[in-house]
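Lab notebook, bench 4. We co-purified these components, and the gel suggests they stay together. Before we commit to crystallization screens, I want a quick structural picture of the whole thing.
Request: model the full complex, all chains together.
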Amino acid sequence: MDRKQTPLPRLMVISSGEEHSSRQGLALRQSAALGQSAPVLYQLREKGLDAGALQTLCRQLASLIGLSGSIFTVNERFDVALATKAAGVHLPEASCPVDVVSKAAPSLLIGQSVHSAEAARLASKAGVGYLLFGPVFQTPSKVPFGAPQGLEKLRAVCKAASVPVFAVGGITPERAPACIECGAWGVAAMRPFFEPETMPDTINLFLSYLPS
Amino acid sequence: MTIPRRLLCVITDQQSNPVELARMALEGGAGMIQLRRKSATGRELFEWALRIQALCREHQALFIVNDRVDIALAAHADGVHLGQQDMPASSARSLLGPEKLISVSVSSVEEAMQAAEAGADYLGVGHIFPTGSKEKPMPPIGTGAIRPISAASGLPVIAIGGIGPHNAAEVIKAGASGVAVISAVSGSADPVAATRELVKRIRQ
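Here is the predicted assembly.
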């Protein structure tokens, strides 16, 4: 199946970023829970792990998530994504250029974080499969990334983009419809999924607020 | 792919402009540049890699990237250097193909044999002497470790760790094919002259 031709799920789950410290093992339990969940995009974003540990984890996740029907992407390291047969790579805004990654890893779904309408326009032209924009709302985990950019900025980004845009930053199920109204394809979040036991229900709750 | 005998590899430090450092090291006769900067963004690494690769081509020198196989692929570097905590050499080999250089950091015969099995072309062996460049919990392994590691793995050894003009010839005598340095060049007031002096000692 060519991921690039299939509509993407409306929800992206982003890993905690704390696999190397306080939430070791969470990504594996989340991935197992995805077996009982509706399909999502799952982005492993663990900058604190060395590439060796990241690759070991990705290998486990790629097979679990691949079986679940969800789509597994790895943050930035397209080499690790290729080596572990992940479906895609999610590029930070300050990464290797999209067209270069696309050439080096043509089999991968490529997503990218953008922080402006101009970046969204350029990334769309360069061949990304989707974009991630935020922080839309106030959120503790995105404090280092600056003040919330708000819904009107999201609207401008969605207008500039020619690929699906996911809104991130302070996203709750109740806030999802406002993002969709601005033109977002879907939403992305990290904190609502820290309890793998309730993850299938939390995913369903999110999806109930999103277009089917 | 194999590496030339009596090779000097200059590794970029965490402070200097890596392109400028590479330019000076190449002018001083370094045969290889390794781009290593743990705190940089992917974009910075990629742009530095393109520029250093171009400089290395001009000087007929080799260019490798530390840890980041993705950057090596994107910038068409000559290869990668992998630590024990990095991507396994076998995976890097699958991604890079048979023509690219893969070196692996080892400090024991066991690690050396694993690296050889996984498809490494040569080994970075150290740290040979006490060093201030990296935090090292282990004691230096000394020049005596070079020959057994090279013999057991069948691979050439680049010695690293605390090497400068005063002891570069000693590690070559002890069986190393070459030498890798960070601070001996990047920490010098005159990196071109420091590189030239190291090359001279290695070729003695």
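The interface with chain A takes residues 41-44, 46, 67-71, 73-74, 83-88, 91-92, 94-95 of chain B (CB under 8 Å). Worth comparing against the SEC data before the next meeting. The CA atoms of residues 12 and 157 of chain B lie 20 Å apart.
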